[in-house]
Structure to design on (199 residues):
């Protein structure tokens, strides 16, 4: 009986290999908490040795943080405001991108949030950085150029509501366009309250 040769290892450029490994991590993250993800499984799926994986990511923790950072980066690419337009239109651009991203990648998004909730300090830093960026984007889009700490607190609370509704709602409960409308209106009410001196 003739032995079947092992598949040849595909040589990739360093940046391609890193992207491949992070992509595998993002997919596996939807099936288990990040700290239960097996480095051996990731390496095997990529067709490389465990040692080579650690050439790209010095420690397991570095790899986990890179996976969570990539997940957050993908969200930020979608949740952006148009360059011009009225504040409501610019906020709508962010909200529409956010809701669309979360609803279409619900499992991945929940997995990244769950990883941040795991308490790892570096993972939490990445998660907090994404929240700060989103908060700043929303404030700027809404026309609040000198936000107070209360403005930031209110928008962070609003972001938490936006996240929960995007994750938990279904098309049967509320359509995507209607959800975006609801979230934009709720932010407008918050901004109006601050403008009227009623924080």
């Amino acid at each position: 009986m003739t032995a079947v040769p092992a598949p040849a290892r595909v040589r990739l450029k360093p940046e391609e290999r890193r992207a491949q490994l992070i992509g595998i991590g993002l997919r596996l993250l939807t099936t288990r908490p990040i700290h239960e993800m097996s480095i051996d499984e990731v390496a095997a799926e990529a067709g490389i040795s465990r040692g080579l994986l650690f050439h790209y990511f010095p420690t397991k923790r570095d790899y986990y943080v890179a996976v969570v950072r990539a997940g957050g980066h993908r969200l930020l690419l979608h949740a952006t405001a148009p360059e011009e337009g009225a504040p409501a239109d610019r906020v709508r651009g962010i909200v529409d991108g956010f809701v669309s991203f979360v609803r279409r990648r619900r499992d991945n998004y929940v997995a990244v949030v769950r990883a941040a909730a795991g308490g790892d300090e570096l993972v939490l830093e990445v998660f907090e950085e994404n929240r700060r960026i989103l908060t700043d984007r929303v404030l700027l889009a809404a026309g609040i150029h000198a936000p107070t700490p209360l403005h930031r607190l209110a928008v962070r609370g609003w972001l938490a509501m936006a996240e929960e509704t995007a994750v938990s709602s279904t098309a049967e409960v509320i359509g995507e366009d209607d959800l975006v409308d609801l979230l934009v209106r709720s932010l407008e009410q918050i901004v109006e309250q601050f403008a009227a001196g009623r924080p």
